[in-house]
UniProtKB/TrEMBL annotation:
KW Phosphoprotein (keyword) present: no
Transmembrane segments: 6-25, 37-58
Keywords from the UniProt entry: Membrane, Transmembrane, Transmembrane helix
Single GO term (MF): acetyltransferase activity
Location in or out of the cell: Membrane
Lineage: Eukaryota, Viridiplantae, Streptophyta, Embryophyta, Tracheophyta
Primary localization: membrane
Protein name in the entry: PC-Esterase
Keyword Transmembrane helix found: yes
Length: 376
């Protein structure tokens, strides 16, 4: 009896300590910048883990813990963002295909059916990634301004995103496909039914992306979601990885200056509680794996060598523009997607099957889901 009471008193003491530690940390956290938030969330996680283990002994704490546990989900979200690109492919011989791909290589993409899903592992399953239906995607993007800027990879990504929202077989999609594929041009569409504006901006070089960011900054008008990626043109026409890295660093600083912790933006949004300031969600559309022997011109095969590709890939890492290296942009990992799907998934060693960009669009939407919950 006596020991039980003492035990209860100890629990009470520890629980009180939890409250004392957690509340100020939580409050401080919400008013700090994102990086500091990340630091705090680790500390919170440990503190809360202690509390959670004690709650069965002390019911009054459980309500409290439930209300704070949303803070801990933060930690979970960071690791989920890091795993969102973890896709596995399943290629099956297309039973209804009877063409001869030796005679007509543009049919080769039909030879395999490509199915993909997030890798099955307990950690990834805990993130609950899902392929969004067109209804869910519309809901998520309702009322937003989405910009996709870059080279032909970005154009293919735009196409997949529109396919998802409008349905790939719809009449509207048929006509969009024609307009979107006018070479080297911009494209813009307003989807009235969900109040969504989507711009594709032709920006083959990183410097074009930087100029675009500067434009938004001058106009003080920013998209809600921005996906960008460029590199292949630079590799073919400039063929200098350190110059590419330099361009990426310049882009990085223009992106950072646009984000909400920049003083300029503080005036647009509510300043109290920095989390509530609306900031654009930014993504980097990675470069595909190039299959040198399949590239369709001698110039491409000579300049876009495997060694050059690796140098460009290193330049991307070294520029620190990606979130996983402390930068502002979340990677849509086209490199891993294309590597895992393999040569069966491309007919020119550079542009890949629609399934790749469909997966990339779903990855972006899942990352958006994770990020937007974080802001609620
Ligand atoms: C190859 O296949 C494509 C797509 O089905 C078709 O448009 C083209 O005419 C074919 N080419 C030849 C030489 O048969
Ligand atoms: C399978 O082959 C048929 C006939 O060529 C084609 O219409 C269909 O698109 C192919 N399926 C895939 C997934 O490529
Ligand atoms: C989009 O949002 C508006 C109002 O915010 C709502 O009326 C409409 O039903 C939504 N549409 C979809 C497809 O979610
Ligand atoms: C992109 O930048 C290059 C190099 O500055 C320039 O020549 C080209 O006109 C730009 N293209 C677009 C579409 O802005
Ligand atoms: C590559 O670009 C860098 C930075 O712009 C420049 O200093 C260097 O001279 C270039 N190298 C070559 C071989 O052109």
């Amino acid at each position: 009896m006596m020991t039980l009471m003492m035990f209860g008193a100890v629990q009470l003491g520890v629980a009180a300590a939890c409250v004392v530690i957690l509340v100020p940390m939580g409050m401080a956290g919400w008013h700090l910048s994102r990086n500091k938030m990340l630091f705090f969330s680790g500390a919170l996680f440990i503190t809360l883990a202690v509390c959670v283990h004690l709650t069965p002994y002390f019911p009054a704490v459980s309500d409290f813990v439930t209300s704070v546990s949303s803070v801990v989900v933060f930690d979970h979200r960071i690791s989920c963002i890091n795993m969102v690109n973890d896709i596995t492919w399943d290629l099956k011989r297309n039973a209804s295909f009877h063409g001869d791909i030796k005679k007509n290589s543009s049919l080769s993409l039909e030879f395999y059916e490509k199915h993909w899903d997030w890798t099955k592992s307990p950690k990834i399953e805990a993130c609950d990634f899902q392929k969004l239906s067109n209804y869910d995607a519309s809901n998520l993007l309702n009322g937003s301004w989405v910009v996709v800027a870059g080279d032909s990879q970005a154009r293919l990504f735009t196409l997949s995103l529109l396919n998802l929202i409008l349905g790939s077989e719809s009449d509207r999609m048929q006509s969009i496909r024609g307009d979107l594929f006018k070479r080297h041009s911009d494209y813009s569409i307003l989807l009235d039914e969900i109040g969504m504006k989507l711009d594709f901006v032709w920006a083959p070089y990183v410097v074009n992306l930087t100029n675009l960011m500067m434009n938004y900054k001058t106009k003080k008008s920013y998209p809600d979601v921005m996906v960008m990626g460029a590199g292949l043109w630079h590799m073919l026409h400039v063929t200098n990885a350190s110059d590419y890295e330099f361009a990426l660093r310049v882009l990085k600083s223009s992106v950072v200056s646009l984000l909400p912790f920049a003083p300029e933006l503080g005036m647009n949004g509510p300043v109290t509680g920095s989390v509530s300031i609306k900031s654009p969600h930014m993504f980097w559309l990675g470069m595909p794996v190039l299959i040198n022997g399949m590239l369709n011109t001698g110039e491409k095969r000579a300049k876009m060598s495997d060694a050059m590709w690796h140098a460009y890939d290193r330049a991307l890492g070294d520029s620190k523009i990606l979130r996983q290296l402390g930068g502002p942009l979340v990677l849509l990992d086209i490199q891993t997607l294309t590597w895992n799907c393999g040569p069966q998934c491309t007919d020119d060693g550079m542009h890949y099957d629609g399934a790749i960009y469909e997966a990339a669009a779903q990855i972006m939407l899942n990352a958006l889901l994770i990020e937007s919950h974080q802001r609620l």
